[in-house]
Amino acid sequence: xxxxxxxxxxxxxxxxxxxxxxxxxxxxxxxxxxxxxxxxxxxxxxxxxxxxxxxxxxxxxxxxxxxxxxxxxxxxxxxxxxxxxxxxxxxxxxxxxxxxxxxxxxxxxxxxxxxxxxxxxxxxxxxxxxxxxxxxxxxxxxxxxxxxxxxxxxxxxxxxxxxxxxxxxxxxxxxxxxxxxxxxxxxxxxxxxxxxxxxxxxxxxxxxxxxxxxxxxxxxxxxxxxxxxxxxxxxxxxxxxxxxxxxxxxxxxxxxxxxxxxxxxxxxxxxxxxxxxxxxxxxxxxxxxxxxxxxxxxxxxxxxxxxxxxxx
Length: 312
Fold this sequence. Notes:
Number of strands: 18
Shape: globular
Radius of gyration: 22 Å
CATH architecture of the domain at 242-311: 3-Layer(bab) Sandwich
Strand content: 25-35%
Order of helices and strands: HHHHHEEEEHEEEEEEEEEHEHEEHEE
Helix content: 25-40%
Structural class: alpha+beta
Number of helices: 9
């Protein structure tokens, strides 16, 4: 049986939900093999109408929030999630139709594991949105936009670039793992493994290459880009491991982070308390415990009224 027949047969079994675990693994492998892109293109054109219907159903499911707690130990990626969006790798858009976008979003206090159509994985932090351009096979470029924060584990695909954009940065990625946060007027990129080139359109300078253990911090208001060496996941993206770590950090910055992640608004009766620097280690998923730790550390009370928490 040739590849064309095999892909067609596996697609039919996928639709009928009769794939065995071994066949599912084979199907994923065929979809991710660069040598089969042209073959997938032909098969998917024939299958366009059915694939489009499946996509609509999947996107309706994807709009439902997925709530979960982060374990204190390092999170492991689940292969089962890829089935939910896997069929998008089959789509080939008619030439007179603009490509659609896949959007993944989290609410306050929520994280979500996303398996992209190229089998790359993203752990999306709270209050974040990730958008994927579905014409990546045709354009031979994987393009995403991120608002918020995500931890990426990028699968290397020969000849197809992986690019993440935000309001402040453009990141060109090889097979690598990194954490990227872009909120308000700043961006933070930490590279755990591999290599990335980052560009700051506002600065109009040459791309900057990062090596593992480096972090890049950009303040758009000050137009200031800083590179920090000898960083770590624990220091730069502890949320991935289920904790929020703050080292010699002003309370004002800590509360800004709480606002980003949990949607809480804070108001201090004494503004000077916001300048107090703290070393804190907080469990990400337990807001009640975070509140108690803050109260004990600051010797204050956090009183919640409607949408605002008053520091007294």
